[in-house]
Amino acid sequence: EPITFPPPLANAGSILIPDAAHPYIPPGPLDQRGPCPGLNTMANHGYLPRNGIVSSADIINGAQEAFNVDYNFSVALASFALLSRGNVLLDLVSLGLESPLVPPLPGNLDGIPGGLGKHGRFEGDVSMTRQDYALGDNIHFQPDMYDNLLTYVANYSDGNIVTEAVFEQYRYARFEDSYLRNPNLTFHSGRHGFGYGEAGFTLNFFPNAKEGNLTVPVMNSFFRNETFPEGWYRRATPFTFAGVITAAGQIEAPHPVPAGAKNSSGVYVTDPTSASGICGLYANLASQNVPAILLNTTGTLLQNVNTLIGGVYKIFEPFGCAMVLPTGPA
Ligand code: HEM
Ligand code: MG
Q: Digits of tens for pLDDT over the chain (330 positions)?
């Protein structure tokens, strides 16, 4: 069946999350969880299917409902998740790694979909609470990294309120660490944008709207336990892509870091797409990070590919970017 995006949810204000229909149930051994604390939390409460095998509509509806992610932004994130690491014919992606429920496309076109935890395309280096793929566990929460983040809350704030100043420093420290230790460091425009964006997600999605500021106990709940805190209200207005671009820019401003990657001689080479700002980020994500072979299809499969390409474009069109098509390797 061809993919159609569900319409926007009617209520975009602050509500108590979870409601009675979405209790926390810890994941079972076969349930897929991955590198995103937001999606993991949603699945642990049934805002996404609890087995962690999700459709584009599941992500679009779940992200709006649980965290008040803007509709177009939800569509774009879901579309990129499906295009990069899902099965676009079945409209399914694993939140973690590969699953028999998300088989390869007919003809094994793009190999095994892998899931959002598979390194490259979406999951990438310089994460805040997961290690670089070349250095360790890039999927599961790493308590030692998070404890290090908390020392930044103590040193750059009051030890309880998580401020932008904390991420200005911590995010830069994470880059320096990867730059020094990871011989395969890959931090292209797309991943660079997401990396800073995810710090912006932490500051803008995780606070309890009743409290205003993000506190350490609330942040603990999401990162350590992947559950909504008691009495938690989602943000009062949808958080848009434009909002995350602004947040990411502010977090990076005190210590700018070039997007790039190490070459075979270990030299960090700037990503040329980074010269073109947001449209360069878009080109890196939607062109270089999505396999070209997806265009070489027919029928419902090609229809879905085109729908999802349009879904990603939704957030870049307002920035005046021309639409790009997948050119990446399988
Ligand atoms: C990281 C996917 C929504 C918070 C990630 C990563 C993926 C991902 C694949 C791993 C990137 C990496 O660090 O290497 C998605 C998708 C979403 C979504 C497809 C669709 C709506 C959200 C939401 C939140 C969130 C709503 C917050 C409420 C985060 C954070 C990280 C992250 C904080 C960084 C974790 C770290 O650096 O240790 N996301 N995400 N995400 N996501 Fe999401
Ligand atoms: Mg990562």
A: 899 999 999 999 999 999 999 999 999 999 999 999 999 999 999 999 999 999 999 999 999 999 999 999 999 999 999 999 999 999 999 999 999 999 999 999 999 999 999 999 999 999 999 999 999 999 999 999 999 999 999 999 999 999 999 999 999 999 999 999 999 999 999 999 999 999 999 999 999 999 999 999 999 999 999 999 999 999 999 999 999 999 999 999 999 999 999 999 999 999 999 999 999 999 999 999 999 999 999 999 999 999 999 999 999 999 999 999 999 999
> Is 104 inside a domain boundary?
yes
Which residues, judged by CB distance below 6 Å to any ligand atom, belong to the binding site of ligand 1? 35-39, 59, 63, 67, 69, 74, 77-78, 81, 116, 122-124, 127-130, 198, 201-202, 205
| Domains: count for the chain | 1
CATH number of residue 151's parent domain: 1.10.489.10
Residue at 13 is within a domain: no
Give the structural domain span for 280: 37-319
ipTM of the shown complex: 0.98
107 alpha carbon to ligand 1 midpoint, in Å?
30
Per the domain annotation, does 18 fall within a domain? no
Q: How far apart are CA 20 and CA 22, in angstroms?
A: 5
Q: Which of 88, 86, 108 is nearest to 97 (CA)?
A: 86
